[in-house]
Amino acid sequence: MNETTRIVRSTLTAAEPGKPLHSGPVFAAPYHAPGDPTGIPYTYARSHNPTWTDLERTISDLETGSALVFASGMAACTAVFGSILRPGDVAVLPANAYYAARVLAQDYFSKMGVTIRTAPTAGNAQRALLEGARLLWIETPSNPTMEIADIAQLAEDAHRAGALVAVDNTTPTPLGQLPLALGADLSVASDTKAMTGHSDLLLGHVATRSPELHAQLDHWRTLTGAVLGPMEAWLAHRSIATLPLRLERACSNAQRIAEFLTTRPEVTEVLYPGLPTHPGHEVARKQMRYFGPVVSFTLRDKPAAETFLRTAQLITDATSFGGITTTAERRARWGGDAIPEGFIRLSAGCEDIHDLLADITHALEATR
Ligand code: PLP
């Protein structure tokens, strides 16, 4: 059966007469668990919950591995760092990794005796830093500058050097790119973004094919309590059921928007891996099924970017990405990333592409 069919049908219950087609969330802290707890599937909700189990089954199917869900994308990143890194270890991160993951590594794990080495995502520059490393952390496409690294190549090099490989796969989702199939040990994501896609949930997951890593992460989750509420888990599962439709439309819109932006005199640079002119395009084509919903581009300066965002009617000025409605922000307003003042990160939604292009044209003309 095709993966899309499996995802769309993943929330269906067994066909028992009189039962609902889709089950609801299970709200529980303790569960009935008399006597010896061995063999009782659910005992206490910090360790497990049937609504997570349903969600994890679907994410595991998508990832071709075994997934654990967490309270946020950052809780998922923290679980990888925390369950793997020990004092004296070396972790190699992208210099342009998602800001909070980078700060977590540099401001906390480095102070606990972990050496953090960084190099850009582009050109597989992290390759040069692998000697003696315990963990290689990859993010491709990188956020927000859309640089591409070759996952299979880096995973091979990292394994030769004795390092584990984790990929932050937030932007493409496992439907767009499959890190485990490309050789990574861990696929990590903020499912707050395209994976759930409705801009109303915060969650993350880690997937692996290693039973040992799975057990370590599970133990970390139970001990730290970085768990998802059942309502969020239920909403997430319901949202993921439409991932194939949403991602296909959003990525097709992103491609059309990126191509259109390259024709415009107001735009000085367009960064999208689906463009043949992108330096990472050939690698992206090899390892991605969809190039993702995020297009970054640069306007003349800060006032031009602000005018663009103020004028556009169909582009909501907000952070984050991957929602069904198109959003964008002037990314330099946050600081922390090496980008120009006129840099805009746009996340294509599922609106009609002609409406979006007309709106973008109007907003660009206002910046002249
Ligand atoms: N990784 C990437 C690439 C992200 O963009 C984000 C959030 O923006 C995260 C991780 C963290 O996810 P969350 O906000 O769900 O904690």
TrEMBL record:
Name of the gene: cysA
Top-rank lineage group of the source organism: Bacteria
Modified residues (N6-(pyridoxal phosphate)lysine): K193
Entry's Gene Ontology BP terms: cysteine biosynthetic process via cystathionine; transsulfuration
TM region(s), chain numbering: none
Keyword Repressor recorded: no
Alphabetically ordered keywords of this record: Pyridoxal phosphate
Molecular function terms, GO-annotated: cystathionine gamma-lyase activity; pyridoxal phosphate binding
Pfam families attached to this UniProt entry: Cys_Met_Meta_PP
InterPro entries tied to this protein: Cys/Met-Metab_PyrdxlP-dep_enz, PyrdxlP-dep_Trfase, PyrdxlP-dep_Trfase_major, PyrdxlP-dep_Trfase_small
Cofactor(s) essential for the protein: pyridoxal 5'-phosphate
Family: Belongs to the trans-sulfuration enzymes family.
GO cellular component, one term: cytoplasm
The species this protein was found in: Edaphobacter acidisoli
Protein name per its UniProtKB record: Cystathionine gamma-lyase
